[in-house]
């Protein structure tokens, strides 16, 4: 189910596939690609724009384009995974505006452009479980190593303290003898 529009935003008049949610299954060490199809059932030629919540992990190609009446535009969404991604936080916003101008879509989408329709598609990220567990195991191992290092450091500190105490005791004994 798409996310609700913000107040005053026009209803989306195009069709998108997938219709409910964009599910991206991925592995940490490789990019994942998901198709997004935008179909124009209207009688007007439209210009679309696809935006994402994080340009560091998502790429949209092409992010802008035209769709003639009755035709479909294919867009590819690419995920460049990194550790710590929130799997339920992200979405894609798709905007459209009717246009007869055949110029560059970048010229159509400026700060003053009011879209004819908006939809926000929730993204569900699904990491390969085996790889996810391996990552967790590595993190756990590192935590254990750090704990062991801290324990060793504390032991060394205690040894040093005992040596210092012995030295002081010996010095005190020497002073008493004199």
UniProtKB/TrEMBL annotation:
It comes from the Eukaryota. The keyword Cytoplasm applies. Keywords: Cytoplasm, Cytoskeleton. InterPro entries: Ig-like_fold, MSP_dom, PapD-like_sf. Residues 127-178 have a biased composition (Basic and acidic residues). PROSITE patterns: MSP. Residues 13-128 form the MSP domain. The keyword Cytoplasm applies. Residues 125-178 are annotated as: Disordered. Central component in molecular interactions underlying sperm crawling. Forms an extensive filament system that extends from sperm villipoda, along the leading edge of the pseudopod. This is Major sperm protein. It comes from Caenorhabditis remanei (Caenorhabditis vulgaris).
């Amino acid at each position: 189910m798409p996310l609700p529009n913000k107040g005053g935003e026009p209803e989306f008049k195009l069709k998108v596939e997938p219709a409910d949610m964009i599910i991206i299954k991925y592995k940490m060490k490789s990019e994942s690609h998901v198709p997004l199809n935008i179909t124009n059932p209207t009688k007007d030629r439209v210009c679309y724009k696809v935006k994402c919540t994080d340009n560091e992990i998502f790429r949209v190609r092409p992010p802008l384009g035209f769709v003639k009446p009755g035709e479909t535009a294919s867009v590819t969404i690419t995920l460049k995974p990194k550790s710590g991604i929130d799997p339920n936080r992200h979405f894609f916003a798709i905007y459209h505006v009717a246009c007869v101008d055949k110029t560059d879509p970048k010229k159509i989408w400026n700060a003053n452009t009011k879209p004819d329709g908006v939809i926000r598609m929730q993204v569900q990220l699904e990491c390969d479980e085996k790889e996810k567990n391996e990552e967790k195991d590595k993190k756990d191992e590192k935590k254990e190593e750090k704990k062991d290092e801290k324990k060793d450091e504390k032991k060394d500190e205690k040894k040093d303290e005992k040596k210092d105490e012995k030295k002081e005791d010996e010095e005190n004994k020497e002073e008493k003898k004199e």
